[in-house]
């Protein structure tokens, strides 16, 4: 057979076989897909049910198409990229030049030949008489069907304006097109493809396929990558029949590859049997929210839950109860916890601990991955990255081989988290699935059979909310379920989230009537159920509010509390304000070592150290002698993730939801007798009719952060009226007084700022809508979306951030990392700065350039990081206590 004359993978050097023949590589990938689509797998059953096929027929059909994914490599232009030695291959044709990627060439070959192959019986299409309309519907369906397979390198492809004869040639011995045809014919015969003829003629079926095509593309890509691993699929250039290779090589090797990669048989979920089963029989009284999660009925269709309750009401555990019940009911195979920040992701990862194992039988071994940490899916799965394997020959500039792509992708645990049975990470990792990032379909494949749990759903800006709505719509279309957690969700946002979910199911949005708090909202198809709940007495409390107008007042209050032996937290809105306040307090504190500064401009090594110190002094387990006289001056990082509490708290004025969150760290835990909890808020003096500079005159940094000053005025107004933050009974009133329909209550002087911000929100929503993929249209090429030079992101920020690698010199004067000697020193030495801040840092002196390049070669994560040798910078500096500072006069001598 002439298809033996084509290589599919090649490597430099002469050790062993120099290439892997194209038909064998095609069968390797198909064999991985064959195991991943085993009929008993829940994903296979879901796809089969949605596409009205038996699991067995669906498996053979899709695996047949998967085996065609590299048809473009039959092009003589591709074959000219390498000349492996020791094997007879099709001779190069000099006039052919490789100018178009092989994935596009595969689509071109299929587009030009499939009808002829069908007529000639190559595709094993049964003899069925079709009228003209049915022929056209079949053509449209098959055109859509192949897109996920030829677009296996991370994005859809198109073949318009390409001509077959320019890329596929022939000589007196062999024809590229004929060789491809022979392979397709034998492959179709081997796999015994079962064409879903009736379904291909149905417009409804095609619509269902298009909605699932992103998941199918992810399956095809994962199959290609795992099927390209030389550790399991040895190069073979000896000729044998496809049937022999399939049975003796491809299928058993694929089974081994999947087992070692962690893709074993599906896990067996356990029915939920009460909280005691999670905590080794210890009696645990469920909260009202948790009790409702235990008892509510779960229909057979996709479910959306929105859990609104105060901090400490057990929302995470309630979500886990629902997740376990959904797993046991067959709604999902795993779950993904999405959180707003890395810090909250870290906290959730620690909080879950081994709890996720209680969701499955003891013999199950669910993988548990932190989305931004150094964890591996499991040791076997990371072997392809941690242990070097020979690299395949890359195909050309910007076109890496599947092995290289797989290694790079799997080396990033943030991306692997969506393939793990249980993943914890930032919301960004999930939102990237709806944006035109290369390989985004792998993310959607990972999410397809998971319960998506989104925590602190209120914390996302308008841009992210729009992307989240698109993700929820797609997740509903895929048959997934989602659980959203929040303590401070505006009514309009709850309505928008429900509408997005029902839009994914092609249903009109249901009307929400519930105004109570706490509240559980359950959406099952068109049915919306809202359940008013009680709160535990322990988490129902009021925090008084007092107002400060001068920083000196705040300093005096801090020192009075220190003299009384209390511990104090002052939450500031900017890093610079926090540094200034910290300096002032430390100068007056009788024991300066009991002062801490905690903000975001520390290298990760120091940030982790300070986090541990904060927990030791202010954490739930902290003792009274450790807490006495402690002061932490911090930014919003304090409220985001750490389970801490202070006896006294001061906060700069911020929107109401943030003040509620900060107040949750004030006397959070039961200790001994303490003064009544009162949140002191540093704010401008109250004005009924403020002007546009009202905030800026008193707190210029705050206005730079919260540009819609009407939110700050509305917050101050409602807190002055209520004189306290009483949760949960006044939660809805507090939130709606700031985020509800209150435009007519905003003073004239603040209207411009509000209008500007609302206009920017509309722009942000439009930008998110434009950037997001039209997932309902299916996995198809869209030249307006898939642009290599297009810069997109999951967050719309005023200014991009830059990762900076903090450097130092060792005793010998050699350039080294700040965290040299630590595990993951490359990551622990980095800090994140705004682009304008990073530009202020002095460039690395030329004399150190060679040493920096050596560090980059050793630590791959430094390739796209800005180096900074702080001790050579006269205008900015770094200190273990203060972090990164830009005021040269205030630089401290770094203590090593």
Task: Explain what the structure shows.
This protein is α/β, with parallel strands linked by helices and 896 residues long. It folds into four domains: 16-261, Hypothetical protein af1432 (Orthogonal Bundle), CATH 1.10.3210; 284-371 and 417-532, P-loop containing nucleotide triphosphate hydrolases (Rossmann fold), CATH 3.40.50; 541-727 and 741-755, Rossmann fold (3-Layer(aba) Sandwich); 801-890, no CATH class. It has an eight-stranded mixed beta sheet with strand order 5-6-4-7-8-3-9-10, sandwiched between helices. The protein has a seven-stranded mixed beta sheet with strand order 13-14-12-15-16-11-17, sandwiched between helices. The protein is globular, with a radius of gyration of 30 Å. Residues 372-392, 395-413 and 888-896 have low confidence and may be disordered.
Topology:
Blueprint: E1 7-10, E2 19-21, H1 22-36, H2 42-50, H3 55-66, H4 76-79, H5 102-119, H6 132-145, H7 147-150, H8 164-167, H9 176-191, H10 197-200, H11 203-226, H12 242-261, H13 275-278, H14 288-295, E3 303-308, H15 315-328, E4 334-339, H16 342-352, E5 368-370, H17 383-386, H18 402-410, H19 413-416, E6 422-426, H20 427-431, H21 440-447, E7 450-454, H22 462-477, E8 481-486, H23 491-504, E9 519-524, E10 527-532, E11 541-548, H24 551-563, E12 568-571, H25 575-588, E13 595-598, H26 604-618, H27 624-627, E14 631-634, H28 637-640, E15 648-652, H29 656-663, E16 678-682, H30 694-698, H31 700-705, H32 709-722, E17 724-727, H33 731-739, H34 748-771, E18 801-809, E19 815-817, H35 825-828, E20 830-834, H36 835-840, H37 849-858, E21 866-869, E22 877-879, E23 883-885
Parallel strand pairs: 3-8, 4-6, 4-7, 5-6, 7-8, 11-16, 12-14, 12-15, 13-14, 15-16, 18-21
Antiparallel strand pairs: 1-2, 3-9, 9-10, 11-17, 18-19, 18-20, 22-23
């Amino acid at each position: 057979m002439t298809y033996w004359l084509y290589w599919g993978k090649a490597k430099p050097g002469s050790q062993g076989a120099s290439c892997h023949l194209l038909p064998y590589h095609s069968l390797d990938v198909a064999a991985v897909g064959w195991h991943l689509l085993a009929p008993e797998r829940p994903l296979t059953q879901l796809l089969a049910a949605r596409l009205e096929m038996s699991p067995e027929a669906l498996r053979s059909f899709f695996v047949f198409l998967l085996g065609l994914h590299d048809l473009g490599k039959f092009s003589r232009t591709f074959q000219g990229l390498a000349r492996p030695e020791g094997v007879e291959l099709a001779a190069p044709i000099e006039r052919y030049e490789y100018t178009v990627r092989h994935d596009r060439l595969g689509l071109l070959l299929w587009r030009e030949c499939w009808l002829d192959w069908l007529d000639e019986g190559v595709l094993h299409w049964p003899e069925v008489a079709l009228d003209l309309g049915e022929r056209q519907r079949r053509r449209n369906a098959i055109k859509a069907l192949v897109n996920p397979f030829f677009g296996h390198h991370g994005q859809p492809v198109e073949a318009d304006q390409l001509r077959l004869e320019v890329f596929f040639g022939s000589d007196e011995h062999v024809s590229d097109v004929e060789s491809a045809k022979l392979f397709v014919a034998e492959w179709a015969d081997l796999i015994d493809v079962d064409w879903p003829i009736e379904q291909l003629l149905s417009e409804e079926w095609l619509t269902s396929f298009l909605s699932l095509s992103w998941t199918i593309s992810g399956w095809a890509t994962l199959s290609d990558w795992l099927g390209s691993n030389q550790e399991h699929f040895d190069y073979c250039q000896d000729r044998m029949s496809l049937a022999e290779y399939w049975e003796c090589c491809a299928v058993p090797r694929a089974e081994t590859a999947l087992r070692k990669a962690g893709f074993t048989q599906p896990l067996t979920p356990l029915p939920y049997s009460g909280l005691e089963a999670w905590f080794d029989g210890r009696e645990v009284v469920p909260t009202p929210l948790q009790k409702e999660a235990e008892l509510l009925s779960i229909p057979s269709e996709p479910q959306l839950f929105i859990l609104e309750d105060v901090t400490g009401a057990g929302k995470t555990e309630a979500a886990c109860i629902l997740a376990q019940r959904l797993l046991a009911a067959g709604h999902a195979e795993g779950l993904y916890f999405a959180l707003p920040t890395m810090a909250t992701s870290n906290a959730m990862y620690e909080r879950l601990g081994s709890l996720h194992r209680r969701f499955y039988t003891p013999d199950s071994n669910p993988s548990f991955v932190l989305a931004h940490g150094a964890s591996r899916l499991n040791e076997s799965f990371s072997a392809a990255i941690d242990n070097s394997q020979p690299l395949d020959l890359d195909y050309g500039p910007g076109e890496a081989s599947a092995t290289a792509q797989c290694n790079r992708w799997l080396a990033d645990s943030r991306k692997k988290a969506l393939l793990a049975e249980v993943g914890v990470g930032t919301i960004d990792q999930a939102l990237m699935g709806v944006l035109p990032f290369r390989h985004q379909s792998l993310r959607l494949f990972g999410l397809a059979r998971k319960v998506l749990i989104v925590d602190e759903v209120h914390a996302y800006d308008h841009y992210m909310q729009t992307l989240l709505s698109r993700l929820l719509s797609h997740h509903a279309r895929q048959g997934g379920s989602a659980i959203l957690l929040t303590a401070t969700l505006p009514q309009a946002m709850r309505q928008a989230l429900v509408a997005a979910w029902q839009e994914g199911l092609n249903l009109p949005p249901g009307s929400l009537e519930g105004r109570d708090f706490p509240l559980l909202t359950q959406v099952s198809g068109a049915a919306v159920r809202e359940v008013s709940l009680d709160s535990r007495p322990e988490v129902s409390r009021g925090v008084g509010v007092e107002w400060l107008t001068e920083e000196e007042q705040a300093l005096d209050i801090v020192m009075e509390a220190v003299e009384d032996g209390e511990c104090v937290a002052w939450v500031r809105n900017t890093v610079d304000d926090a540094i200034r306040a910290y300096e002032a307090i430390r100068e007056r504190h009788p024991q300066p070592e009991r002062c801490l500064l905690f903000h975001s401009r520390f290298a990760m090594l120091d940030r982790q150290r300070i986090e541990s110190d904060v927990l030791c002094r202010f954490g739930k387990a902290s003792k009274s002698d450790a807490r006495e006289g402690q002061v932490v001056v911090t930014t919003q990082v304090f409220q985001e993730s750490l389970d801490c509490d202070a006896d006294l708290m001061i906060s700069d004025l911020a929107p109401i939801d943030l003040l509620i969150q900060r107040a949750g760290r004030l006397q959070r835990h039961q200790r001994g007798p303490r003064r009544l909890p009162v949140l002191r808020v540093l704010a401008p003096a109250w004005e009924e009719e403020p002007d546009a500079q009202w905030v800026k005159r008193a707190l210029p940094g705050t206005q730079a952060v919260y540009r819609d000053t009407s939110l700050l005025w509305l917050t101050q107004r409602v807190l002055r009226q209520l004189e306290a933050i009483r949760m949960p009974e006044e939660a809805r009133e507090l939130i709606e007084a700031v985020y509800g329909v209150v435009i007519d209550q905003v003073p004239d002087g603040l209207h411009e700022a509000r209008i500007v911000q609302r206009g920017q929100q509309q722009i942000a929503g439009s930008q998110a809508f434009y950037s997001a993929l039209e997932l309902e249209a299916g996995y198809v090429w869209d030249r307006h979306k898939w642009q290599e030079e297009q810069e997109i992101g999951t967050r719309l920020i005023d200014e991009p951030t830059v990762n900076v690698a903090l450097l130092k010199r060792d005793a010998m004067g050699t350039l080294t990392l700040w965290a040299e000697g630590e595990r993951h020193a490359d990551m622990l030495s980095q800090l994140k700065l705004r682009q304008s801040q990073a530009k202020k840092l002095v460039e690395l002196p030329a004399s150190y350039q060679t040493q920096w390049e050596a560090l980059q070669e050793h630590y791959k994560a430094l390739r796209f990081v800005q180096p900074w040798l702080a001790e050579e910078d006269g205008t900015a500096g770094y200190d273990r206590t203060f972090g990164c500072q830009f005021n040269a006069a205030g630089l401290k001598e770094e203590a090593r």
